[in-house]
Structures are given as structure tokens and as C-alpha cells.
């Protein structure tokens, strides 16, 4: 494998510098990683939006993926006004977040919640990074990769894919690997309890422990899947999403739990890198976290996204500063000279209605929607 990217969803600069993380510290290059305007200044970005930019090289105005709970954003006449308000630094972060999340979402992306249409892989009109390569990708847990499509490599759908048992089509491509991936009941991104964000009867510790178990199982499975499929593929590019930190930090501010979670993600990444031995490794987060506003009335969220706290660390001098830099920098490292982003051509994908219902439930499980 030429490049392995490990997504540390929500890994936060001020936490990383505080804990002892030998793998991350061993990476010679790195720094902060910010989203594009207006999300950098508005202080809020959804993982759906961030990971779409990080994997396609397309800007938000091009791809329109605002958040998991909305449909695709299409240009709205109030964009300039809303972004102007949302980027006023004297306004409290919660208000700026509402302008971007709620107001822009409702005006430009349709109705929120169970009635509204939600984004899925079919809404992303651009090639993903490995689709520029001659070799194959081993892609695991990248958001918005369900429904799966015919692609060069092996792909395990990330959130908000339905669970395999409730999905109308396989959540792994090629489908023959689905059973291999999901033979371990801890694999996947959904835990069997409500989030404390939505349900105050759920204790923080077992909920966070369940997400830690998921991270361990997904990291282990990624290596197993590599070993299982390697002889049939020329893996040039790998992606593994470890998204537990995002769910954990929405649910707790407990320093011991945080320390354990960061140490775990560091160890798991080190284990995967040791097993697969890629030529280059990039660790990155889509955003960081900060304590949630006391005025957040809708949910009991302990921490909320902070767009100024995202980070990257790598074995190579990729010189990243913004989300939009990631795809071009990796393609340049891989020796691919292509204009980014490129449309992915006609892809015949439709998400079924039963899938849409399942996705709504899974988003609620995670405390979204
Ligand atoms: Zn995220």
C-alpha cells in the first residue's frame, strides 16, 4: 500500500497535546487542518461536509453536503447574508452554529428529521480520491459511501449506512466480503444503546466504552480485510475511519475517558500501520471539539464541533492547511497529475425507502437528527 489515511474523527489539537500519544508524536510532519470559508469562521462543520471535501477535493459549494440530517444543499439566495452573519466573530458560537446548521440547512437543503430527504452516496457527484488511481483502494468507514457502487477496490460503507441486516443492498463492495467483515458483532459504527445526548438515563461510561470497543473491532477488521483481499488487489490507497472520538466527546467531558480513548486510537493506528506497512501514513481529523454551549436547549451535548482544532500528522511533508488541500497533496505524492475535482460520470444509484427509514434511526442512535 502506497498511502494509508487514518481518520481520527474529531481529534482535537488541545487534547492531543495534553496526552501521551507515541504514534502521533512519531510522525515528523503535521499541523492544524482547517475547513474552508465560511465553516472555518462560523466555527461549525458537519462530518458529512468535511469528509466529502477531504475525499473528493470538491468545495462545499460544489458538493453541497451540509450535514447527515439534510438533503443536498443547492444554492440559495440568502447564502451571502447567512454566511456573513455566521462568520461574525463577536457573535456567540452557538448562534453562528445555528445560522450554518439550522438556517442554511432549512433554507437550502430541505426539511430536517424523519420527514426530510437525507444525503447518501448517490448525491456526491465527484470521484473519490482512489478513483483517480490505477491501483485499488481499501476503503473502510468513509462517510456517505452507501449505497455502494462499482469502484476500484474494496469498500465498507461508513455512516450513515444502515446495518447490514436492515440494508436493502450490501453495505460492502464487492458484496462477497460482507459476511467476512460483519462476522464480528463489534464491527460497525452503531452501538446498542441510546446516546446520552438524547437520553439522560444512559450513563456516559458504558456508552463510551461501547464506542471504544467498536474502534478496536474496526481497526482489527481493517487489517484482517487487508490480509484477506490483498492477493486479489493492488492496494495503492487505504482509508480507515476511527470515528469513536466524535461520539465519545459528544457524550462526555470526563478527562479519564478522553485520555483512554485518545491512547486507544493512537495504539490502534500504530498496530494497523505495523501490520500493513504502507509507504506513507496520514492521520487527520475533520474538526476538533470544544465544550458545548450551556444555552444549547435541544440536546444534552457535552462537547460540540470546533473547526479551529482539526489536525493532521504524516510521514511525508504534505504541507496541508485546509481540507481542500488533502486530495491534491495526496495525488501529487502518488504521482497523479489530474485536475481535481472531477465528476464521476453517470452512476445509477438510488437509495430505497426502507433504507431511508433505517438511516433515520441510525442517525438518531448517534444523537443526530
Ligand atoms: Zn466528525
Automatic annotation (TrEMBL):
It holds the Pfam family Phosphodiest. InterPro entries: Alkaline_phosphatase_core_sf, Phosphodiest/P_Trfase. It comes from the Archaea. Gene3D superfamilies: Alkaline Phosphatase, subunit A. This is Phosphodiesterase/pyrophosphatase family protein.
